[in-house]
Design a protein that fits this description.
Number of helices: 10
Oligomer: single chain
Length: about 350
C-alpha cells in the first residue's frame, strides 16, 4: 500500500462512522496532510449537516498550512448547493493545491462537475485511488441513483439440510423453528440499524409475528415494509404497534396514520417493481428482505437483488419449507460459533 492508498484508506474508515446517520447522502471521510503529517480530518456525520471536507478543513488549527497541503477524500467533492454550500468552493478558497479522490460521484448533480471546477481553478486532482473500495462503501448511494431503486439485500437462515422453515400445516406450537444462535441474531440487528428499510410478506408476519426492530444493538429502526395485498393481517400483530414507522403495501387503499401508512399498488402490474418504485419515491436507498421463501424466491427469479446474506445453522428439520437457492459461489464464508454466514454478490 503506497502513501496515497494509506491516506485514502484512512478516509474510508472515517466515512464508515456515518453509516447510520447520513442517508440519503453518501458516506464520506476526508483528511488533510502536510509534510506527511495529518493536520486535519473529518467525516459527514449527519444528513443536512456539514460535509466531510468542511469538517476536515475546519479542524486544521493553522489554516496557513492548507495552501501547502494535500486533501484526501473517498468521493468527489460536491459543486452544487444542497442542504449545505458546495465543498469545492471551500477547497478553492483555501488554495489547497492538491486533492486525491477515491471515486467519481455519479449522482447527476455532481458527476464530474466538482473535479472540473477544481481543475479549472488550478488544483491538481488525482482520481481513482482505492476506487473499488470507495465505490463499494457507497454501494447503496450509487445503486439508488444509477438504478433508480434501493440496494437490495436478501437475508435468511436455513438448516444444515436446507430448510428455511418447519412444516406449518401441523401448527404444532411445541416445535421450535428458530435456526440460528444469539451471535447471529445480534449481527442481524446491527444490519437492520445500517439499512433504511426491511421487508416481509404476509405469511412471515402471520407465522412469526416479528417486530422488525433494532433491539440487540443501539441504532435507528428501519422502515418496516409489509406486503399484505388483501389486508388480511390481524391488527394485534407487532407490526401494527405504531412504535416505529411502518408501511403496508396493499391493493386496497392509501391511508395515513401515526407511524402507520398504507400504500396501494395494482395487482395487474409487476408487484416487486411497484414496491421498489414506492421506496425510491420515498428516497429509501437500501432494504433488507427478510421474508419467507416465496418472497425471497420472487426477488431471485426477477434478478432484483444486489447482495445475499445466508446463515446456515447446525439444526436439522425432518421436513419443512425448502430454502431459496443462490446459484453462485459466496464471496466469503464466516463462522459465528455454531453458525456459518455465506455472503453473495449479484454481478
Amino acid at each position: 500500500m503506497n502513501k496515497d492508498e494509506k491516506y485514502l484508506n484512512h478516509c474510508l474508515l472515517l466515512a464508515k462512522k456515518g453509516i447510520r446517520n447520513v442517508a440519503p447522502n453518501p458516506m464520506v471521510g476526508c483528511i488533510i496532510v502536510h509534510q506527511n503529517k495529518i493536520i486535519g480530518e473529518g467525516y459527514h456525520q449527519k444528513y443536512g449537516e456539514a460535509h466531510a471536507e468542511v469538517n476536515a478543513i475546519h479542524s486544521v488549527k493553522d489554516k496557513s498550512l492548507l495552501k501547502k497541503s494535500t486533501l484526501y477524500v473517498n468521493l468527489e467533492p460536491c459543486s452544487h448547493f444542497g442542504k449545505t454550500p458546495p465543498c469545492t468552493g471551500l477547497i478553492i478558497k483555501h488554495l489547497i493545491p492538491k486533492i486525491v479522490i477515491g471515486c467519481v460521484d455519479t449522482f447527476s448533480e455532481v458527476s464530474g462537475k466538482g473535479i472540473t471546477k477544481l481543475q479549472d481553478s488550478g488544483t491538481e486532482v488525482v482520481i481513482g485511488v482505492l476506487e473499488k473500495k470507495s465505490q463499494q462503501l457507497n454501494k447503496r448511494f450509487f445503486t439508488f441513483h444509477n438504478k433508480k431503486r434501493p440496494y437490495i439485500i436478501l437475508k435468511w437462515a436455513q438448516t444444515i439440510n436446507g430448510f428455511i422453515d418447519i412444516n406449518r400445516e401441523y401448527k404444532n406450537p411445541t416445535i421450535d423453528n428458530w435456526i440460528t444462535n444469539a451471535y447471529s441474531k445480534k449481527l442481524v440487528h446491527q444490519w437492520r440499524s445500517e439499512e433504511q428499510a426491511i421487508l416481509i410478506g404476509t405469511n412471515t408476519a402471520l407465522n412469526d409475528n416479528p417486530q422488525l426492530t433494532v433491539r440487540e444493538v443501539e441504532g435507528k429502526n428501519p422502515l418496516r415494509v409489509v406486503l399484505d395485498l388483501n389486508l388480511r393481517l390481524p391488527k394485534n400483530l407487532n407490526i401494527f404497534d405504531k412504535s416505529t414507522p411502518t408501511l403496508i403495501i396493499n391493493a386496497q387503499k392509501n391511508e395515513l396514520d401515526i407511524n402507520l401508512e398504507y400504500a396501494k399498488v395494482s395487482k395487474d402490474l409487476p408487484l416487486l417493481n411497484q414496491i421498489l418504485e414506492e421506496l425510491y419515491k420515498r428516497k429509501i436507498q437500501s432494504i433488507i428482505v427478510e421474508g419467507g421463501a416465496q418472497l425471497l424466491n420472487s426477488f431471485i427469479a426477477e434478478n432484483l437483488w444486489d447482495e445475499a446474506k445466508i446463515f446456515i445453522g447446525e439444526k436439522e428439520f425432518k421436513e419443512g419449507l425448502k430454502a431459496p437457492i443462490i446459484d453462485k459461489e459466496p464471496i466469503n464464508s464466516l463462522q459465528f460459533d455454531s453458525d456459518i454466514l455465506n455472503t453473495y454478490l449479484n454481478d
